[in-house]
Amino acid sequence: MDTDALTAGLLQELRAVKPYPALSLTMPTHRRAPDNAQDSVRLRNLVAEAAGRLEADPAVTREARAALKDQLDRAVDEVDPRRSLDALVLLVTADEHQIWQLPRTAPERVVLSDTYLTRNLVAAKAQAQPFWALTVSAGRVALWSGTADTLREEKTGGFPLTAPQEPPNPQREEQIGDTPSTFSDEETRHFLRTVDEKLRAVLAADPRPFYLVGLAPALALLDEVGETAGSAAGRLTKGAPADLSPGDLLKELRPVLDERQRRFAAEIDGRLDEARGRRAFAGGLDEVWAAVREGRAGLVAVEEHFQQTVRMADEHLEPVSGEAADLTDSAVREDVVDELVERALDSGAEVVFLPDDSLAEHGRIAAALRY
């Protein structure tokens, strides 16, 4: 699964307590050859480590061990290397398995617990900055779910919607001298009111920035008859053919997405400046970690590719190099940035990812504090 499939409801299910053991396996992967040749070897090694851990754990019964190994083998067989991104996460119990391909790296880990490890999924979801796109025409409206790298049509919330076709009326044409305008007849207005209602429901269930794509008359009518279009993050005034591929649509949307990202980065910079002015600012990993742990962070800004291995010492974080880190030490956190992101979101903070070097003067991570 991709990160845009991680809804609030699904995350709640993943975090639910499960019969021990629930296995979480994470590892970095590579998108292209020749680097991706090592991924299958690394996966086999982690699977062997997981099998050894299960054999050595006295709390795991023979039946549970066999069932979990069977699910793990199925998951490995279903991994598609052609879809590899920057990390692979396998979540496995005796009854199920899930495969997640993430656009954010994750460390090698094998975790046996009574819940799944979700921090890498949550951080990747936040970094991906998912959005909705609505392609609008008089006859059909489609909903698309996207991230910076992917786009796919969603069949949810009543979408796609197809307008009822009104049969030709020769007598009406004779009376008025022409066919009714595509974007002015009452049937189309009613159709777009329905679109607005359904879009509102989608945004309420899964709030994201959304973009509108369509000819100017269609978007103008959606503005006129509905309540939602005015809050769009951006618009692409262009017709979207029914056979337009996801890749082509994402390419068309790229300038609109980039422009919104520039505005967004400037807005975040302004909010951090304001926080500095009122002395409610934290900069650097250790300061931000403390603010998040205490529930004081209202906004956390992180550079997109910031990862840091640390050792916990008296509730402070001491950075350690990857070579010097003893990953068997329980005080060492290899994915502390992802853990911080998950904690921040759980505390109600807003988490945003900015381009690399945006926060260089603040240690690559900063926060505006609530108090």
Concise structural overview:
Helix content is 38%, strand content 22%. The protein has 371 residues and is α+β, with helices and mostly antiparallel strands.
Description:
This protein is α+β, with helices and mostly antiparallel strands. Helices cover 38% and strands 22% of the residues. The chain has 10 helices and 17 strands. It has helices at residues 8-15, 39-56, 62-78, 119-128, 170-176, 186-205, 216-225, 246-277, 285-293, 336-346, and strands at 22-28, 87-92, 97-102, 109-113, 131-136, 140-146, 151-154, 161-162, 210-214, 234-237, 281-283, 297-303, 310-313, 316-319, 332-333, 350-354, 365-369. The strands form 4 sheets. Strands 5, 6, 7, 8, 9 and 10 form a 6-stranded mixed beta sheet that branches. Strand 6 and strand 7 form a beta hairpin. Helix 2 (39-56) packs antiparallel against helix 3 and helix 9 (285-293) runs parallel beside helix 10 (336-346). The model is unreliable at 172-181 (pLDDT under 50).
What is the overall shape?
globular
Helix/sheet category: alpha+beta
Profile the largest sheet: 6 strands, mixed
Low-confidence stretches: 172-181
**Hey, roughly how much beta strand do the residues contain?**
15-25%
Rg to the nearest angstrom? 25 Å
Q: What is the helix content?
A: 25-40%
Number of strands: 17
Look at the structure and give the mean pLDDT: 91
Quaternary status of these chains?
Answer: single chain
Question: How many distinct helices?
Answer: 10
Could you tell me how far the N terminus lies from the C terminus, measured between alpha carbons in angstroms? 38 Å
What order do the helices and strands follow? HEHHEEEHEEEEHHEHEHEHEEEEHEE
